[in-house]
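User: Can you fold this complex?
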Amino acid sequence: MKLIWNVKPDYLERLIVMEKERINLMSNTKISEKNINIIPIKNKPLWKQILDCKYFYIMFIPTFVLYFIFSYVPLYGIQLAFKDLNFAKGITGSSWTSMHGLKHFYELLSNMEFQKAFSNTIIISIQRIIFQFPVPIILALLLNEIRKDSTKRIIQTVLTFPHFLSWIVVTGIFFNLLGDAGVLNEILAALGLKKVHFLTQASTFRGLLYITNNWKEAGWGTIIYLAAIAGISVELYEAAIVDGAKRFQLMRYITWPAIKSVIGVMLILAIANIMNAGFDQIFNMYNAAVYDKADIIDTYIFRRTFITGLDFASSTAIGLFKSVVNFIMLFAGNLAVKKITGKGIY
Amino acid sequence: MDYSSYRIKKDGFDTFNYIIMIILAVITIFPFYYVVIISFADYAAVQKHLIYIFPTSINLDAYKLVFKGEMFLSSFFVSIFITVTGTVLSMIFSTASAYALSKSFVPGNKMMFNFILVPMFFSGGLIPYYLTIQKLGLIDKIWVLIIPGAINSFYLILLKNFFKELPASIEESAKIDGANDLYILYRIVLPMSAPVIATISLFYAVDRWNDYYTALLYISNRKLFPLQLVLREAILDFAQIMASPIGAEIARNNRPTYTKALQMAIITVATVPILCVYPFIQKHFTKGILFGAVKE
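Assistant: Here's the predicted assembly.
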């Protein structure tokens, strides 16, 4: 759902439609000259335009206030990353750290636990792109091949539902299935096999992450691709069928090109999110036994800040480091996808 | 959309596809089914069976315990309160500003849009945000669960794109009749946008209902815990629950209560409200959200 803001509406087309509607309006109803300028036209003086739009500004006020307080004011706290926090003096009063204010960054980069979390984050993110990213695409293509619309809708409803559950609920559900007394282990025991500790065993934990994530999100992920497919005109398919195209040729030459650019955009966003390896899921599912394989930057920040010690300054530094890497990845991902598909998000 | 029903002949692929879909549907449903049967299960009955897949016993003890526990009931009401209040507030704010943003002729429109866009990429991070909340005195107040996250940028942009696609002529004729923009929004535009309003409301409501993280960070008064946080303790930290009034109740009962049934009962209760609303709104998803999303 994240690609919306990139899609530029065709302003020209809209303007033409608006103009046509206005002409219709004028010819159908007799309106006085004065009333035609309902939409403020650019040739009015600016203050008049602003006055005409006063209600729109009023509508925007609550959003403005909320964003200002909760998104812009905290930006000022970023300087904490370069300071030694002194609770008595506050953020502004605290002094800059040694090493030209970069002490926290040096400390972090030489911290073993952070290095581990950093590499885990990257590995998990990349593996997510391999094991999770293609699943909704394949699923959407398969769903599209279902003949009956009603069947398609029922299956879609079922597959989308888990998206609306919290990770806590999903964790509970899978503990119930895969725990030591869960149904899977009962089956293993009944077959005379050894029980597997899926949840507390480092070697299976990452696999578990991808499987449960696919279970929860794959159905939801199809929506964006199905929408792109829905935009293809049926005539295109019919013409191809008349020309003797088979099912897989239709898929390859009509459906695939239509969703290719959507896949590109989704891929850029996945790459830009490389530093967020899925906090919500891991935070609820992991445990001390699997830290070695599953501890990511976000869970590490959380523990460091709220559990092991109130280390606010270096946690801010990690947060800043993360944002910067994400930002670089956004540009890099965009560049790469643009090279491959010829189309990026900006 | 449904091109295959036109001319393509049925072949083996169809059968294969149906089998795959049925397997996927079963995989999706089975975990829920198992949660529900365990929540109603009798400890003795589960012990007797090697694999407990078909329910052979009905035992309401777990639900009785859940609804008797004060902690659970209060968290249930906290969750309902923040979901209802939060969704209403979010929708009022979001529809108003999305409508304003959808009018590109408003001077400063681009600036207003960038104002929303920038925080999606730059954020202060966890700690500066925490310190801001602390300074505002919102720690341990129920409003911290409602106000700071009242507007979601993605949903705002979805709404904006939707409003942009609406025909301008109706609004214009209302304007000729002398209606102001606020009146037009709430009396004319919103009733026309029912599918997208339903969809976005569902998203906001589900986000609220599922939110545990905000409460985990900013709420320490157990009376203000939302359901998801209680559920989190019940699943990840069962000792907590046993130390709470529910645990005392279990101890007083002095009979082997199936603790797993208790966990599964809480999961069921936390899921049912979503299950009740979701199927009715799901059909609007494609119509509602994708209207502006994938237009090129």
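The mean pLDDT of chain B is 83. Residues 3-39 of chain B form one domain.
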